[in-house]
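Dissemination and training. As part of the outreach component of the grant, students in the summer workshop were shown how a complex can be specified as a set of sequence lines and then modelled as a single object. The example used during the hands-on session is reproduced here so that future cohorts can follow it. Participants entered these lines:
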Amino acid sequence: MAKNKRDGTFYINPYLGGVLLGLVLFGTYYITGRGLGASGAVKSTVVTAVHAVAPSHADENKYYSKFLSDDVSPMSNWLVFEVLGILAGGFLSGTIYGRLKLKVEHSPKITSKRRLIAALAGGLLFGIGSQFARGCTSGAALSGMAVLSASGIITMMAIFGSAYLFSWIFKKLWI
Amino acid sequence: MVGPLIPMGVIPETWNNVIALLLGGGFGFALEASGFSSSRKIMGTFFGYDFVVLRVFFTAAVTAMTGILYFDYMGWMDASMLYINPYYVMSAIVGGIIMGMGFALGGFCPGTSFCGIAIGKIDAMFFTAGLFIGVFIFSELYPLFEGMYNSRNLGGVKIYELLGMRETVFAFLLIVAAVGMFYGAGFVEKKVRKVEY
Amino acid sequence: MNKKYLLLAGIAISLGIGILFMPEKNTEKQVQPEQLLAAINDPSRFLSTDDITDRLVKKDPALMLIDVRPATQFSAFSIPGAVNFPIDSLLTASIQDMLNQKEMDKVFFSSSDLTSDQAWIICKRMGLKRIYVLEGGVNKWFNTIVKAVKPAETAPAEAMELYQFRMAACQHFFGSREMGANPVATAEKKEVRVVKKASGDKTGGGC
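and obtained this result:
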């Protein structure tokens, strides 16, 4: 196993990964009183960017203005640092297990271009959906489940239920 | 030390960002090492050839939940101080359905796409670009969605309250359900033809 | 490999069984402000004195009458069969346990509606179910039931029936109308609930 570890095909046992992730999530709750998140950082960045480009527009928009306050820049948000941490942690793991490689991963049945368009469209929908649900798979579903919140568990079921359905519709993209 | 530490004032707020970096690092490492940086591995859950998402996701949720319940019971942590996302009935379901569709198209969710970027997946970069555009579109069209976005707020309600169950019973059933699903997943994986990725 | 997973599953399930034995937390069940506001504006928590009396006469086992006045006033006079939980002791653990009986209808009363309604709001916020307030409190109960006024001859039949019911109930509680007329005199008599004369009239006066 040690020999294969660096060729990029080795993944840790999923239950070990789950316990690790669970401990990180628990630690986050224990230290900060909130869960993990990812889409919140995207929102903060968008709000900051729009505010920098068109300040009056951001102030007028009811959604941006919710997250704008005079003394704190939304960029200094907790989640932005957390996402920087995700990038660092992912990079570390990728280095250890030899997975650092610039590439487009796609099913042999589709072209790279098609995969990238689908990824962009998927990201776009995910971005819209995460704002409706006030969090994404990590922020709403995973963190919500840990504290047994109704919104977390309902959102989780909605995500996985609809993903299951649509994945068969878009089956050609994957297998 | 009774948690949560920062809201209790045990750790000063200035450490917030350092802690965020460290916790995010752990999060990213656990995701990447489990294989969440690969969209085709993630999608295996929906086609039945690789249930890594199901296993990691539910193990993590159950681990964290158990930790919180035991720490609260021992008095090491005040679980009532933890932040609970408010439950807006319509908004949560609609958002979940849209995200599911994005999941099936993109093969990532926001957290895993950052992991993909960290190891150089170009599709993950496109997915994240899509995220930014999606959030931007939502914000610009917010007046259209505002009604639904704010309708039927049940507050930070817990799932067992909605179901009229005891918290402990629900938590126990969740653990049993998770173990049952792991068993079932292994069964399905054996039946389904392997997909090379 | 398989044995390892069996062990892990065993650990997970035994932790789950451990969770099952944890006591229920009260803080979790706090009612949201919006819900509390809606509940306060809903008058259905008020039960009438006749309603309570009928249930007392019928010895409804699910009825729990709670006097939230101070102990001195309770011992001077109260509604027969009531228990005394003074409002300042409402949050003590033993009383909380008594109130946390899901199958009981908890009815608070004081001299008027005021203190009993405060007790109701406290318990509502703690998420207790099946809690009510006796409308008008012990004073109204005394005036309507014990000192029931005989309606005029021309009054409708319902009014007469109500009066008869009240009379019967009063006899049920205090033995005779004369004794019930003076609250201080009845104070010592409170425990003595011997007269069963009302049982015959009950059907006639039942609501």
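The mean pLDDT of chain B is 89. Students were then asked to discuss how this feature might be tested experimentally.
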